[in-house]
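so im writing up the methods section and need the Origin recognition complex subunit 4 record in one place, dumping it here so i stop losing it
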Amino acid sequence: MAPFVDPIEMADQVQTALRERLGQCWVPEAPIGFKEEKQQITDLVKRTINFGESNSVLLIGARGIGKTMLLKNALKEVKKDKNVHQNLMEVYLSGGQHSKPILFILDEFDLFAQHRNQTLLYNLFDIAQSAQAPITIIGVTCRFDVMELLEKRVKSRFSHRQILLFNKLSFKEYTEVFKKYLKLPKTFPDSKFVSKWNDSIEKLCQDGTIQDVLKRQYSIDKDIRRLQTFMMGPICNLSSTQPFLQVSDFIDSFKRMSTDSKSSILHGLSILELSLVIAMKHLTELYDGEPFNFEIVYNEYLRFSQQKSSLQIFEKSVVLKAFEHLQNVELIKPLDGSCTRVQKEYRPMTLLVHPMQLKEVLQKFPSCPIEVKHWATTSVI
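--- predicted struct ---
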């Protein structure tokens, strides 16, 4: 006779296991989308251990892209080698844990560059360059312009090796990440339940409604942290009476995230700002998701406004201010890795608003001119 399993206790165990994953306590076996970057990190550390070669590198990527997860995964891979595991010593400099030094990991590297005279960075890079001891220094930062923050004497001792991370996830890979986070590990106490649960996740991912919701989520923002937030609500709804994830919970989670953030911001925009969002929507559709810049958006807006005599045509400087406001409220964002030294009018940007969100807002938008509403629903002029 099979042992009795308390449904409430089972639901708690599932929630705990999945929350740990979403809370960044979990390091996946193979991070999706960064195979080459992972190999670069593991090779670098192994050369320090096996050949006494000192190295330094900067791991650069936008917030939430997976820099820390990738680094942890690479080190986990390195430590599988018994020789490495016995000899590798780490120092985490972020107010975190300390141990004997060989590998230095400087999280939020750009903050260390703000220290007076950058003495710590200078000394570390100087040791690495002079080969006084075999060390590897890995700096982790979201600042793509971090090299500009370094003093000349520090910069001269740095290897100038950089690993740039960009969110290149395809929708298939994005769905795979979603699935990996939700599946229970083999180490879960009840193996029979694990089998049932993981089968239910496979079916969930094949559901047409879930696919539609994930596509909308993906088109708005491929950020993994946003995906984690999207999954947290349904996981918290698990209980003894609802032991498995429901499609309706994911729909509610998406609506809640959309309403709480983007839609409420859209309702507060001026007609000019709304017109720019519509122009960006058309450009995104026309060029199949390729980034745009202010100049392209302005020309699109100007073409539309000049054809509609009832609409006020604003000066370019005013339109630029409206464009910058859209960036400040995070309806658009700079493309990952776009150089900050590029003139702001030509900086590549991406739209973070889904066409369906825009459509829903326009239906309820007070005093929005009919021409603008019509422009949003028609093809590019």
